[in-house]
Amino acid sequence: MLVAEPALAHSVGGTAAGFTAGFLHPPSGLDHLLAMVSVGIWGAELGAPAIWLLPIAFPLIMAVGGALGVIGMPLPAGELLIALSVVVLGTLVASARRLPIWAALAIVGVFAIAHGHAHGAELPGAADALAFTVGFVLATGLLHLAGIMIGVLARWPNGVIAIRACGLVVTVTGCYFVYGYAGA
Amino acid sequence: MPERKRAGRTTHTVRLVLGVAFCLIPASAEAHTALQGVGSFWSGVVHLLTSLDQLGFLLGLAIWTSFQDRRLDARVIAAAFVAALAGVWFGASFGEAGRLDLAAAAAALMTAAGLAGAMRLRVGATPVLGLALAGGLVGGAAGADAAAGLSIALFSLGGSIAAASVLSYGLLAARRLETEWGRIARRAGASWIAAIGLMVLALSFTGHTGRV
User: What count of CB pairs under 8 Å joins A to B?
Assistant: First the structure.
């Protein structure tokens, strides 16, 4: 039963490869990874309703950006926006900045468009675009969840320090990305 | 008593092995075009279970329905069952014409179900039942081309039973998540489904069906 036939390997590989490529896309790019996790941490720092509203809104807005990327609509300075998202979100986490929910949504929304556009632009060439989409949306959601779990550390005094230090590291890394973009 | 226990354990093991064996049935070169070798009924079942857009729609619908009155559950399952059954017959009658449009419609319905769940819309029974009917019809019709050379009656029955089962299990799971975090998880899951639907919709407009 488990012996793979040559003709069968292709279809499984196509879907599995598409899903794997999509699933690995957000965590394999450090800029995506840091931004997604930071959204979760910041949401946890802000508390309800941001803790659940940001991770729910992010994939939806990201999909709008992804759709723009899929249909080939250009996004000026998209890579710069992604790099800036790391800087801004890292700073917000490090400073535990409390903003009104509409402002938090607006900030996250703008960056979600840029991240989604980057994913969407790679979609049509994927082995199985549908599986790729499922993979990257799932990975994004799990990264948010990881961020929320890290953000829960804020309940302890030492956890607050650790989270702020993480935010600082994210900001510095983001500055490196912006520097790299400017130098390119 | 120990013998009865052992017999129960054996039955459980047999069920487990059969379940795993079913999951491991290798897919043909075009996995989504159903398994012709396992017969018409199981082809219909497997076709739905390997259709990510259909599964996404049904799970989105289950999440949205779980935010409504419990008394609606049975009617939504029945509507999806009947619509999926009719959809295959409808699709088989009209052939492959408009297949791309059906893919776009399926993606749009998946987005709608996901959005409604993420927003936790409570708008009464009619829109939920309408979405279940529309999704079942479109999903069934989109899968009809996979029934070529098979018995339409058995294929559609398999597909509609699978659709009703996915919806039922989805509802059972969603109804168990009645805590605050459970509600958040359901809404987050629905937002993921909407996001996937939106991307697939965009793909269908570029002429890419989302599959190779």
Answer: 113
